Amino acid sequence: MSITRRDFLATSAVAAVGGTLARPALARILQGQPAQAVFTPIRRNVGFFTMRGGTIGYLMDPAAVVVVDSQFPPEGKACLDGLNERSKGRGVDFLINTHHHGDHTGGNISFRGAAKKVVAHVKADEHMRQPPGAQAPTDQLYPDTTFTETWNAEVGGERVRARHYGRAHTSGDAVITFERANVAHMGDLMFNQRHPVVDRAAGATLRGWMTVLDRAVADHANDTIYIYGHANTGLPVTGSSADLVGFRNYLGAVLAFVEAQVKAGRSREEVLAMRDPLKGFESYGRFGQANPRDVLTCAYEEVTS
Ligand SMILES: [Zn+2]
User: Fold this and answer.
1) pLDDT averaged over the chain?
2) What is the tens place of the pLDDT at every residue in 166-191?
3) Ligand 1 midpoint to CA 5 (Å)
4) Among 28, 91, 138, 212, which one is most buried in terms of CB atoms within 10 A?
5) How far apart are CA 145 and CA 120, in angstroms?
6) Per-chain residues with Cβ under 5 A from ion ligand 1
7) Reduced to 3 states, what is the DSSP secondary structure of residue 281?
8) CB 204 within 8 A of CB 164
9) How far, in Å, is the centroid of ligand 1 from the Cα of 62?
């Protein structure tokens, strides 16, 4: 893939403020400006797109276009427009969803007529059609191809794999791997040094999540580049297996912390009122307000169930 001047400038502008995407994005949000569409190449025709919502991954080689996740409808459209401009309108061979959440699938509708196939784990498909605790969108482009463990495709010069390693952030998470580029999109299995959303209503489990991260690391090369669903302010949305291991250890530390509080006789209210950063994981910041999808609430319910 050739890097256009606009790509180069966008990437350089990002690099100039310290190799991060979130800081300029945050500044724009604070100034009330819309988020900017940015395409960032990683390697061998694979890159990532950021605007608003979970990070989108893409493959654009001379013979194929693959998109992983779709953000929200306007952002999905901006991504598709940018890819069409660069690929001379050759369309999208596969749109693959990492899981069902709206900030990753809301933009699917913008790919209607452009995406030849839409792929997701069977549970992600089910949850897109009937989201636990949420409203299904009135108009949506749903998956037409589902899998339970692994799905593969040879597309252009690349081999793409989607694999489910077990219940974690939801019960339908998949890691999408571009095998020849050696790049893997983790979806929301990876929050880079940021407290995660834990969707217990959709089958999430913190202990399962730790196992899934171990399995994902073991199933990839040492030098695989991973794309993350989200990152804390100022931190990158790509990185190495060291980040995955760090996040796995954080999940273990949250469970151990809550277990110790319960053993010490603290009530549910007392535990969920705790806000101070976790010792050893201060970069994640303070815990947020208790809610059904926050990490402390989910850890408490998992430890006491
Ligand atoms: Zn999610």
Assistant:
1) 91
2) 999 999 999 999 999 999 999 999 99
3) 33
4) 212
5) 7
6) 101, 188
7) coil
8) no
9) 31
270/206 Cα distance (integer angstroms): 21
pLDDT for residue 135: 86
Strands 238-239 and 225-227: antiparallel
Q: 198 CA distance to ligand 1 centroid (A)?
A: 8
pLDDT at 32 over 80: no
Distance CA 301, CA 305 (A): 6
Q: What is residue 22's predicted lDDT score, i.e. its pLDDT?
A: 52
Reading the block at residue 146, the tokens are: 């589902």
> 169 C-alpha to center of ligand 1: Å?
7
Burial 21-30 (b: 16+ CB within 10 A, else e): bbebbeeeee
Domains of the chain: 5-304 (3.60.15.10)
* Residue 263: pLDDT over 60: yes
Angle, helices 206-218 vs 295-304, to 10°: value is: 100
- Tokens 């199933």 identify what position? 219
Cα-to-centroid distance, 67 and ligand 1 (Å): 17
| Run of H or E residues at 12 | helix 5-16
Ligand 1 centroid distance, CA of 290 (Å): 18
Residue type, 142: Y
pLDDT category, 35, cuts 50, 70, 90?
confident
pLDDT at residue 57 tops 60? yes
| Helix or strand (DSSP H, E) at 231 | strand 230-231
Q: 101: CA distance to ligand 1 center in Å?
A: 5
Distance between CA atoms of residues 27 and 280, nearest Å: 29
